[in-house]
DNA sequence: AGAAAAATAGTCAATCCTGACTATTCCGGA
DNA sequence: TCCGGAATAGTCAGGATTGACTATTTTTCT
């Protein structure tokens, strides 16, 4: 996923940041679109430094432990520009992990299957509700929210279809 | 992704298969829902053998190279049953990699952005067309196709929305 | 003041995944 | 019958990812 690197570069363009700050921001403000774990973040930052896209420097505030501050380089800026343009044009098909169990739906009675899929649907609907009650976000993040919303609605409609066909089979 | 293991178990329940056969089937018939690379397949099969879920035996047909035939064990069957039920109830939220570049849409002129997103849309639409012309598949795979179809339609609608708002901004 | 909880700032070992590679065999056409 | 390409059957080294862990400092509450 090159887009993860794009993300770090994009964030560092506005201001130099330290690791904790980057991780916080990603977990808090970008939870809609990605979930980069802390060790992954450091791994990627190190890789990007090795490549010359960013630099690290040490900083100490008061008695807090030393921390590394990351800063984008001109090379990094060039990389950002080109990756941004490339990835903006791309459509990458997504696989849905939860599709796989459906391949074996026959192994369950329609009754049992319905019960499980209802549980699944409840989780989906509660996700959907959270989304619908999320206040409007600033800037372009709003577009991701709407993306997610549409996606969840499509999921719900599809699950309903599956469930209603299962019910039909049950009645036969 | 535990569902990958579920998939292998589910396939081996019907008949013992060798590695090549498993890989072929996944690439040809299950391309809608997953893309497991060959080395990953062997890796997972070995892991599952170590765990006692499947057994390997060697087989030779004519002069062809020796090959390993995988077969599910009773322990594997139990694992399959429990994983199937668990995963059937689960809804796992999906992240869309292509959302990330949108966070930096401001960095481009609306004109440039539109051009790129139009390219993206074309790719999406050609995917959609392929889906719509795919003949009805047998069994439960059909449900995955419909899932994908709905998802692609939602994507297209969302992209249209983004594009039309961009155009509005351009006119101001 | 003292203790528990939260915030800060990472690291490490292990797991997962895949591009690139190796080899052999079969098959159709010149 | 000889050659090239497709099919067969995997392996290996290396990159990506993360759960669990370590340590210190600040804050809060009593």
Automatic annotation (TrEMBL), chains A, B:
InterPro entries: Metal_resp_DNA-bind_regulator, Tscrpt_reg_PadR_N, WH-like_DNA-bd_sf, WH_DNA-bd_sf. It comes from the Bacteria. Transmembrane segments: none annotated. Pfam families: PadR. Residues 9-81 form the Transcription regulator PadR N-terminal domain. This is Helix-turn-helix transcriptional regulator. It comes from Candidatus Desulfolinea nitratireducens.
